[in-house]
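Review form for a predicted model. The reviewer records the input and the model, then writes brief findings.
Reviewer: anonymous (R2)
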Amino acid sequence: MEAIIKTNKGVMKATFFDKDAPKTVANFVKLAKSGYYDGLKWHRVIDDFVIQGGCPNSKDGAKGSPGTGGPGYQIDCETKGENQFHDKGVLSMAHAGKNTGGSQFFVVHSRRNTSHLDGVHTCFGKLTEGEDVLDSIREKDTIDSIEIID
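Model under review:
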């Protein structure tokens, strides 16, 4: 299974870590297939660190501060698998503490500043294409849609 993440800056493709993070992957796939991510913004962009999106409060007209919203439920962290290293291009679940993730996720810019996230945030996929798009994303750029290819 793969994700095609369409942004206003171009397309990124990712494969999932189904064996390492099956519940996180299933949650992301469910949200993507429902159109949940369509039109949301990358609300947090830190050079040489990550781009973060998936907050419903980042959508035009939404109430609440970007970075504070979620889908109305929380999922457990899955940090014990083999692929739990925050290398460039890795998709990882954002959270406000253990087992509080939901819809917000980030994509890693560089391993240089992310090793402290290993074993804390669930890595659930990795880019196979589009690192140039990853590097071009700026705060308030959009996630146009996320297509799941089974």
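Findings: The domain at 2-149 is CATH 2.40.100.10 (Cyclophilin).
Further findings: The chain has a mean pLDDT of 97.
Recommendation: see findings above.
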